[in-house]
Input
Amino acid sequence: MAEAQKPEAGERWRVLVVVLNSLRDLEVAREEGWYRIPLKRAPTRVGADYLAFYQTRVFGEERWAVNYYAPVRRYRIVCRGILLPEEPDHPRADDLYYRIEIGPLRRLPRAIRSRRLRRITFIPTTQERLLGAEEINDLWCGTRDEEQLWRAFKEHGLAPERRYPLAEGEEQRIVDFALFCKDGRLAVCLESEADVRNVRVIREHPLVSEYEAHALGWSMLRLDSRDLLEPAVACVRTIMEAAEGLGGVAAPPTSEGM
Amino acid sequence: MRIGFPVKVLGQPGLKSHDTRRWQNHPHLSVSLAYLRDIFLYLDRQDIHMYRIAADLAPYVSQPDLPQFHSQIDDCATELSAVGAMARSHDLRLSFHLQLSTVLNALDEAIALQAAQLISAQAMILDAMSLGDEAVVVTHVGGVYGDKGAALDRFAARYDLLAEGTRQRLALENDDKRFSVADIMWVHHRTGVRLVFDYLHFQNHNPEGMLVMEALQACLDSWPRNVRAKIHFSSPRTAMRVIERTDLQDEHSEPMMRAPRPHQHADFIDPFQFIDFVGKVKSVNLPEFDFMLEAKAKDLAVVHLREHLARLAPDAMYWGNNG
Output
């Protein structure tokens, strides 16, 4: 990022990937320099030094990818009526929003695409990941265990989705890794949350229960702290065996016909 | 009893305490407040009700040569009010701790003035968040400058010059080499400033030979009766230190082993030391107060200590609530 200085030692610039659903939203970000998030639906992390923008299907060539980012200048809390004065009679005119004011939009050196063309809400990440990501799943920052497993998946040519909701609109019920198999879907959940494994920190997203997963048509594999003492390669082998039981991993969908 | 930790969150990756960008990159208090809101949600998840806010929450707010940053607190009235409401609804006790570079009793008037401006700014932030009297800005006396009596006098005189609202937010802590509990008690009698007892500092620097409960009680008594006091608690490091020694000639560095020093903070809290301390407090029937843990493992130390207390001394956790 051209204007960014080097972070302090041990610090990393924080980036929040947000969603652009309409051409108008992109125009507002580019021309007027702001983006909005309703307070009621704000994610557990809104603070960021930069916003990056995931563009949905309406954006033609740029769809299902992060193409732009911008530095954050200011957060304001305002009601919708002030934010969007052209809609004074909107039923949510009194609702509060974060108006996140940003600097000029810049294009990323390469687009960060979603392999599964998935619906995304927010991704808290870092500058390094934004600039180095090859696809959307590279953006998520997990615990040491999760990161090791992710690297092992990639080394084995596997492409699970990270932080995947059990169902559309179920943003609170998220599995750590989702593998889409020929005969079903496999959810992989890590029971550990903190890097210091024997301190019981409450997870940011509650651990999904097997019952919930099965009810929504998923098979589930849980890895507890003892499983994670094994090398990541061994964990991947266990996961692959479970995937084989579901007919093996299927190829991701393509944009044709979407 | 509330048990809190300072500034940095270690329990979950990526939670920043404030906007750390340098002035050229336009940092802003409102960005820090967005980070703070995220931390408050984390604290709520972990059932932690006490937290020390980063001293640089409002970046460059009192930097004399950067006036563009001076109006941030007024500009963020709405956002400060929102995070304040969140803190109150979570029963979250908040504080600031001035950095060692903020020296109210400095010989240099310009340094002292800048310190006073920063204290005032932090007090304004707590006011703008509509926090109760228990939310304080903690500082040390500062430097001795060869004359301890004059240094204490200078602190008291500069305290008197602060605005009334700022004075009510300031609290004074004993340190581990210069100003003991007896010294800060002198400042309290002279000015009325509230005192924060630091257990490890007391163990390291107690030239008057005060008893620990006597020193603690003196500090607790400096708080108004209707405001719950707080103390700082930490265990001394006992593990080996590994430091890198760099040869300036060839820039080659190699690790060196060092024994720990008694003023250094341990990663976690010694649960037996904590339980013993709480037991002594209970035995002399002192008023209820909160614990700010100054352990290097931050929030992990709070969670871990609570686990130990639940197993080893469940009554200790409920001291204060019952008393």
Notes: The first helix of chain B runs from residue 29 to 46. Strands of chain B lie at 3-6, 50-52, 93-97, 136-139, 170-173, 194-198, 229-233, 241-246, 253-258, 289-293. The longest strand of chain B covers residues 241-246. DSSP finds twelve helices and ten strands in chain B.
